[in-house]
Amino acid sequence: KLSRRLECVASYIPKESTLADIGSDHAYLPCYCVKQGIASFAVAGEVVKGPYLSALSHVKELDLEKQIQVRQGDGLEVISQGEVDCITIAGMGGSLITSILENGKEKLPGVKRLILQPNVGSIHIRKWCQKNNWEIIAEQILEEDGKIYEVIVADYVLKHPEKLSAPELLMGPFLIREKSNVFQQKWNAEVKQWKSILQKLNEASETKELEEKKNELKTKIAYVEEVLS
Ligand code: SAM
Predict the structure, then answer these.
(1) Pairing with 116, which of 3, 28, 128, 189 sits 20 to 30 Å away (CA)?
(2) CA distance 51 to 90
(3) What pLDDT is attached to residue 155?
(4) Backbone angles phi, psi at 96, to 5 degrees
């Protein structure tokens, strides 16, 4: 059985997709998608040998070798351009997900949908999407086993997507509108942490760098408090 987190990712994969799941670990997601008939073909990419081998054996165990190819490599280097129309990258930090997309940019023409599941740092993903003509069409936030996860779904668009405001880049345009309990819980905890950092910085001696850091924190706190109020 798939985790709720990965089930949420899978729910945004269009039917009959050709899928690449990058950083697939055990290849749970591609196996589920192929078995459910969501994807007709999938590539499971893994850079690390251990997870690559476990993906291979899981795919073999389920007898899915015809529909799922497990490939070892860094990020999008495991696919060729035009091979898949949907890419999932889940369970990593937002900056790592963003660097995988940025480094593999030449593989993206032909891809219609990205489903990205950052554990932290989703702002990097939203900024990258905005800059590279990927329009965020849905977002989810969920809690599982005491951790909070975000899912960002983006479709390729020809013209620049509508510009997101600074609070939207930080917290997510759809998530801000929905303002779910989990969302409030996450951002209340962030603000609490930022305030305690700010207090410590206030006790330290003044430098220009420190001043900038403090201003950055104050700005973020103001954005979040405005959204939550
Ligand atoms: N996607 C699965 C999930 O959401 O449950 C696995 C998440 S696991 C925490 C992250 C995986 O990404 C690890 O197996 C790691 O080896 C892999 N990974 C990290 N950087 C990668 C990269 N640049 N290219 C491919 N895989 C990568």
Answers:
(1) 189
(2) 14
(3) 98
(4) -65, -45
Instruction: State how far the alpha carbon of 142 is from the alpha carbons of 14, 89, 137, in Å.
Output: 21, 17, 17
> Residue ranges of the domains in the chain?
4-162, 182-228
CA 158 to ligand 1 center in whole angstroms? 30
User: Looking at residue 159, what is its pLDDT?
Assistant: 86
Q: How remote is the C-alpha of 207 from its chain's centroid?
A: 35
Kindly report the protein residue whose alpha carbon is nearest to atom 16 of ligand 1.
48
- C-alpha 126/C-alpha 77 separation (Å) is 22
Does the pLDDT of residue 1 top 90, yes or no?
A: no
Query: How many CA atoms within 13 Å lie on the side-chain side of 126?
Result: 24
CATH C-level class of 4-162: alpha beta
Residues belonging to the chain: 229
Structure tokens at 209: 């760098």
Neighbours of 196 (CB within 10 A): 10
Atom of ligand 1 lying closest to residue 74 CA: 24
- C-alpha 137 to ligand 1 mean position (Å): 24
User: Phi/psi at 115 (nearest 5 deg)?
Assistant: -125, 115
Mutate to test the pocket of ligand 1, among 46, 53, 79 (most ligand atoms within 8 A of CB): 46
Complex-level ipTM = 0.99
